[in-house]
């Protein structure tokens, strides 16, 4: 059995999913403190944004019990980012896809990226923060060894559709039906989006990568051309019949090959 890589690891059940932290730097007191703060912030995000909690600020805002100016400042930040995503995707990203306020399509990626930033600000240069299958990657898994991210196959449990090699900081987000069925809606018609079994998007930072993955999944047949037109993003889609397509630059991430020491996993969990 290979030696456990040096660093610090933590798993936290929060926001209705599992967050994992894999820190490959020397765990200094500053990094340990940042990890504790990141975990605290995730629970804070759940308190503010959970649509499953009747007492959350976002639920109370949706019911009209409070106004936005009575919410914590992070609500304004998230709703502003959602508005940017809606504009950038021609409305295919929506915070009211079923007629009720729900920014969940951006919040998890935003929270994961923020946790990664806290670690980075504390001096952690080589980290993987996994928020329910969506990842923010920084640095290397080990000196000279890139992070490798296995993408779960949505139609073949236990198998991978590909392995992404991260040679630099990047984010990986996957939208799919494997875990929760056809739950992503076409915001223009209110019907379930069923063009894809899963769609994985690679980008620079997870907040918008996550939102764009959701938008591309909802867009369906027009997603490949739209994603090819985006600068800095690449995608892999698996269709319900098992066929695949990849955007033109996806090959740059060295997809494929056997798994080894620096591997992390990601997959269609929402």
Write a concise synopsis of the structure shown:
With about 270 residues, the protein is α+β, with helices and mostly antiparallel strands. The protein has helices at about 30-50, 55-60, 75-90, 105-120, 205-220, 225-230, and strands spanning about 10-15, 15-25, 125-130, 135-140, 145-150, 160-165, 170-175, 185, 190, 200-205, 235-240, 245, 265.
Report on this structure.
This protein has 270 residues and is of the alpha+beta class. The protein has helices spanning 29-49, 57-62, 73-88, 104-121, 206-219, 223-229; strands at 8-14, 17-23, 127-131, 134-138, 147-152, 160-166, 170-176, 185-186, 191-192, 198-203, 234-238, 244-246, 263-266. A hairpin with a 7-residue loop joins β5 and β6 (160-166). α1 (29-49) packs antiparallel against α4, α4 packs antiparallel against α5 (206-219) and α5 (206-219) packs antiparallel against α6. The longest helix is centred in the first third of the chain and has 21 residues, at 29-49. The two termini are 33 Å apart. 43% of the residues are buried.
């Amino acid at each position: 059995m290979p030696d456990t890589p040096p660093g610090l690891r933590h798993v936290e059940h929060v926001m209705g999913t599992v967050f994992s932290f894999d820190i490959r730097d020397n765990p200094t007191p500053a990094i340990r403190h940042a990890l504790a703060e990141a975990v605290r912030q995730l629970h804070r995000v759940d308190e503010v944004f959970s649509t499953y909690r009747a007492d959350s600020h976002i639920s109370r805002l949706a019911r009209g019990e409070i106004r936005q100016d009575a919410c914590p400042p992070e609500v304004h930040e998230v709703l502003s980012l959602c508005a940017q995503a809606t504009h950038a995707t021609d409305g295919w990203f929506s915070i009211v896809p079923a007629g009720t306020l729900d920014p969940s399509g951006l919040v998890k990626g935003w929270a994961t990226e923020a946790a990664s930033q806290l670690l980075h600000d504390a001096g952690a240069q080589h980290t993987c923060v996994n928020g329910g299958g969506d990842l923010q990657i920084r640095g290397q898994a080990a000196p000279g060894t890139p992070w490798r991210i296995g993408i779960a196959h949505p139609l073949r449990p236990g198998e991978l559709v590909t392995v992404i090699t991260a040679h630099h900081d990047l984010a990986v987000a996957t939208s799919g039906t494997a875990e929760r069925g056809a739950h992503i809606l076409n915001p223009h018609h209110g019907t379930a989006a069923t063009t894809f079994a899963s769609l994985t998007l690679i980008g620079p930072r997870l907040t918008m990568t996550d939102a764009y993955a959701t938008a591309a999944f909802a867009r369906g047949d027009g997603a490949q051309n739209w994603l090819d037109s985006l600068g800095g993003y690449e995608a892999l889609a698996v269709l319900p019949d098992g066929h695949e397509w990849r955007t033109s630059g996806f090959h740059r991430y060295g997809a494929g090959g056997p798994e080894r020491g620096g591997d992390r996993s990601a997959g269609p969990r929402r």
